[in-house]
Amino acid sequence: MLDLSKIDVEQVVNTVTEMAILYAPKIILAIITLFIGLWVISLISKGIDFLLQKKEFNVSLRKWLCSMATVMLKACLFISVISMIGVQTTSFIAILGAAGLAIGLALQGSLSNFAGGVLILIFKPFQVGDYIVAQGEEGVVEAIDVFCTFLTTLDNRRVILPNGPLASEKIKNITHESIRRVDLSVGISYCASVDNAEQALTSMALENNSVLKDPKPFVGVTGYGDSSIDLTLRVWCKTEDYWDVYFDMNRAIKPALDAADIAIPFPQRDVHIIDKSS
């Protein structure tokens, strides 16, 4: 049992007074620093959000960058405050570093997807509404998150692509440019006039209002098949009109060639019968 008679009250009071004189200013200064630091961090976070919003950053990326900046600044503030009181921060920082390394190794795949998402949102190889081909999939980009990109295919299926592989491999953005070229192939008979066929196809293309006049349509011979002379028709159109022009051109080719009296041949072979009895 504690014997109070043996405690030197005056010594205890003196010790407490000395500690108060020694630590009270540090604690008060640390508290003031803490509140001022939190206020400054709040202003910095709002400033970062404002700048990113002016740069038209993605909402998800903007919120994440602001959150990360706030967390890092608060961690630095906390370490500064406890060091002002007199707490040794060397071991504390080492513990934080080890914990961060362990978390990074555990979330390696997720962090890879996250890093890919940040790169996609910053450099914008594609945006929401673009039609892309990537990772063996193709479709319209419906949403871009920091971890995944969401596509809707032409047959209305939803495809979720992880951003890590997506950012590091080839991406084909079909609708990035404002105009596209439509390539069509057609074969004509060897008896037909190539000049007449080229003129008929060019006139047919120019009659379509969705086909651009500049660059102008092109028709050329691309090969000689077993049964036909192969021609290629190339026309330009607005990107949003691509499929309409593609199907309209395919439908109009035969009537245009028929009107010019140019036959589209079908595969045929000459068979020679040898009479061995003679």
Strand residues, percent: 15-25%
Class by SSE composition: alpha+beta
Q: At CATH's second level, what is the architecture of the largest domain?
A: Orthogonal Bundle
Across the major sheet, the strand order is 4-3-2-1-5
Computed Rg: 37 Å
Low-confidence sequence ranges: none
**Could you please say which CATH topology of the largest domain applies here?**
Helix Hairpins
> H/E series, N to C?
HHHHEEEEHEEHEEH
| Number of separate helices | 7
State the shape: rod-shaped
Helix % is: 40-55%
Question: What top-tier CATH class of the largest domain fits best?
Answer: Mainly Alpha
Please report the total strand number as a whole number.
8
Return the domain count.
3
Terminus-to-terminus distance:
138 Å
Largest beta-sheet details: 5 strands, antiparallel
Structure commentary:
- It is a multi-pass membrane protein.
- It comes from Pseudoalteromonas citrea.
- This is Small-conductance mechanosensitive channel.
- With 278 residues, the chain is an alpha+beta fold.
- The chain has 3 domains: 93 residues, Helix Hairpins; 49 residues, SH3 type barrels, CATH 2.30.30.60; 81 residues, Alpha-Beta Plaits (2-Layer Sandwich), CATH 3.30.70.
- 51% of the residues lie in helices and 18% in strands.
- The chain contains 7 helices and 8 strands.
- A 5-stranded antiparallel beta sheet has the order 4-3-2-1-5. It has a 3-stranded antiparallel beta sheet with strand order 6-8-7, with helices on one face.
- β2 and β3 form a beta hairpin.
- α1 runs antiparallel to α2 and α6 crosses α7.
- It is rod-shaped, with a radius of gyration of 37 Å.
- It starts with 8 loop residues before the first helix and ends in a 19-residue tail after the last helix.
- The mean pLDDT is 82.
